[in-house]
Amino acid sequence: MNPKSLYPKLDQVLTSIAGFLQPLFLLGVRLFWGWQFFQTGMGKLKDLHKVARFFESLNIPFPLVNAAIAASLECGGGILLILGLCSRVIAVPLMFTMIVALATADKEAVQAIFSDPDKLTSAGV
Fold it and tell me: How many Å apart are CA 43 and CA 75, to the nearest integer?
């Protein structure tokens, strides 16, 4: 049997397996991220004043208001992701929140994103 003739068959089998597994993988990713956002949002909502003090130390304006918005968005957005409702819509404000969080919590790593990308990837280590 010619190995070149096996390639199209193998490609077809792998493509059909990947097509079957893709929705399960995406479901798992959505549930994982939804649960993580829900947990962090609930943690922030349970002690909102502590989060507001942290935001104040980062010089974020209106720390209590911004803490309440971020916590509510994370908690509510996490629930929506878990339920699969408005997933694409809620992903945008969640992404914006995470970008702002990274930019305010570790300005040096963000500023060095092109000159020294290792600072960004090892920021939490």
Answer: 9
